[in-house]
Amino acid sequence: MPTFIAIDDPADPRIEAYRDIRERDLVGRRGLFVAEGETVLRMLAAQGRHRPLSVLIAPKRRAKLESILELLPDDLPVYLAQQPVLDAIAGFELHRGILAVAERAPALSADTLLAGLGARALVLALSGIGNHDNMGGLFRNAAAFGVDAVLLDATCCDPLYRKAIRVSVGGVLAVPFATVEGDMVETLLRNGLEPVALSPAGETPLHGFTPPSRAALLLGAEGPGLSAETLARCRTVSIPMAGGFDSLNVATTSGIALHHLRASGS
Q1: Which of 26, 53, 115, 197 is the least crowded, having the fewest Cβ atoms under 10 Å away?
Q2: Which residues of the chain have pLDDT under 70?
Q3: Nearest to 204 by CA among 226, 225, 231, 244
């Protein structure tokens, strides 16, 4: 079991990384990130990519979390703070009463990540996703449907932002990802993946599309979507909708499309 340490003072320097969480969400954490909630903590403890540094919980949570805490290193500090102290540290009412700080794994290049995929692979490639709720939902679906890797372009928001991790229910910690430097479609083709772009104007209805054995599903931001140049270089598919309506939330869209691609053999 890790080391348990009682914290009575919100100003205790040992819990500096947890102080004023929302403000630090805005300015970044210099290679660290915050995980929040029981399910996310379980994922953090079980995965091997990102290194947990400490945990901060309300004492009343300790017994319930014992099976998770047993997975953590013996020398890792678990700080115990009563709920009023915990709320004062975080700067808001922390109903879940469970936080952890971890060190980001070294960033992988897109080529390195894709080089490790097998003969059958399904990749999710994202462009312009700037909303952390959507990013979290996309990673949640990626984890649920067994996506092998997620690629981001340079305009996407950070998947390891606290809210994105929380919305993903830990999916961000389960699915490896990389940011593409350069052209997304070229990167996919270079690594033997066939780009499949989802668009309301896609030439093939999703239910009639047979995916290749190594496919990459491209999704763009709500509103602008993918550029015409990108669409012209991909096979395009669409999700038929009721007349006069052609808009779905991007995370919802990903769930529908990933289910079809995985169920159809990718």
Answers
A1: 26
A2: 26-28, 244-246, 265-266
A3: 231
Q: What is the predicted pLDDT for the residue at 134? A: 97
Over the stretch 84-117, which tens digit does the pLDDT of each residue have? 999 999 998 888 899 999 999 999 999 999 999 9
C-alpha–C-alpha distance, residues 59 and 51, integer Å: 23
Q: Among 217, 215, 180, which residue's Cα sits nearest to residue 197?
A: 217
**Whether residue 84 sits in one domain with residue 121:** no
**Alpha-carbon gap, residue 206 to 259, rounded angstroms:** 11
pLDDT attached to residue 27: 56
- Do 150 and 258 fall into the same domain? yes
Question: Which residues span the domain enclosing 72?
Answer: 3-103
Q: Sheet of 214-220: strands edge to edge?
A: 177-179, 149-152, 121-127, 214-220, 194-198, 235-238, 204-205
**Cα–Cα distance for residue pair 45/68, rounded to 1 Å:** 7
pLDDT at 244: 67
Separation of alpha carbons 55 and 29, rounded Å: 16
Whether residue 174 sits in one domain with residue 230: yes
Q: How many domains, in total, are found in the chain?
A: 2
User: What is the C-alpha separation between 139 and 196, in angstroms, rounded?
Assistant: 18
Q: Which residues of 208-226 are buried (b: 16+ CB within 10 A; e: fewer)?
A: ebebbebbbbbbbbbeebb
C-alpha 45/C-alpha 32 separation (Å) is 15
CATH of the domain at 125: 3.40.1280.10
| Predicted pLDDT of residue 243 | 73
